[in-house]
Amino acid sequence: MPTNLPPDYFRIEERFRQADTVQEKIELLKEMMSVVPKHKGTEHLMADLRRRLARLNAEALSRKGGSKHDSAFRVPKAGAGQVVLAGPAGTGKSSLLKALTSHENRLTDTYSPTFEPEPMMMPFENIQFQLVDTPPLNREYIEPRLKELIRKADMVLVVVDLLQDPILQLEETIKLLEDFRVVALERKERYTDPYRLTFLPFLILVNKCDHEEEQELYSIFCELSEETWDCLPVSALTFYNLEHLKKEIYRKLDILRVYTKAPGKDPDLGTPFVCRRGNTLEDLAGMIHKDFLTNLKYARVWGKAVYDGQMVNRSYILQDGDVVEIHI
Questions:
Q1: In angstroms, rounded to a whole number, what is the distance separating the alpha carbons of residues 130 and 134?
Q2: Tens digit of pLDDT for each residue in 126-164?
Q3: Inter-axis angle of helices 22-35 and 7-18, to 10 degrees?
């Protein structure tokens, strides 16, 4: 059911986005709630606004008004990598976040914008990634702290709506991100002076590929795109390609899983250490404990690049799936 929000709502919402203090945001949220029409189509929106108001009230009490440095835009990294979802309003970023993290999805026609970053953990095999939904990208106003959040992430998922001019959405989003000095890693060779630029792996998610007929639209999108991007058609409604998406995130982050074991015991295959490709045995020892790094003598490794139990030194380059027995 449509919400039929009045123009005043969107004007207040824009002021909310520009507000600097928690108290100012609280007052503006109350204004927004006062102009929302009371009918069934706005129930979800009102529930979302009440949740945000409760969160801001709690923040105001604990931080005495809050500050720019202690804000919802400071999202500590967690898991094997921090991946932000970025894109225009209405592309379904929030629905994708829910589908990927909790396998719950309640799609409605209700307009329910994301005002602040929302981090959630996405399980993948025996590790987890941190996904962060972000406020819609809009050239008229961008929260300055959002730019910093994206720059510090490990990967960007650009979400576009297949049914709403996805080519234009993609072009505008890429341009906005580049204005933030966030550039797709795939474009790095284009820059002779990469100073002050942040290069991150990008993956373009073409959302709302809900039925077979949308596959033809996706093919047209690929044909008409002026530039070749790493794209994936997905659906938050049917979960189409979401398991494949998880594998793509793992691949593009270029990480590997390493397992440890004590002498004479079986390895713990349930809780791997997540390392960057190119990390050495010395790096792993430092991740475990500083004393391991200081007192490391050698290790025995079971893996694809060595024979079982091969003795290696500090400079050994770790491989995905290695089982390491450290000796100090």
A1: 13
A2: 999 999 999 999 887 787 889 889 999 999 999 999 999
A3: 170
Where do we find the tokens 């630029």? 197
For the chain, how many residues are written? 328
Q: What's the CATH fold of domain 255-327?
A: Ubiquitin-like (UB roll) (3.10.20)
- Closest by CA position to 314, among listed 292, 281, 276, 278: 281
Which CATH number is 82-253 given?
3.40.50.300
0.90 exceeded by the pTM?
no
The C-alpha atoms of residue 235 and residue 245 are separated, in whole angstroms, by: 11
Return the structure tokens found at 249: 């995130």
Q: What does the domain layout of the chain look like in residue ranges?
A: 7-63, 82-253, 255-327
- Provide the 3-class DSSP secondary structure of residue 316: coil
Q: How far apart are CA 112 and CA 47, in angstroms?
A: 10
Which residue type occupies 208?
K
Which of 260, 255, 253, 223 minimizes the C-alpha distance to 319? 255
pLDDT in tens, 272-287: 999 999 999 999 999 9
What would the two tokens of residue 1 be? Answer: 């059911």
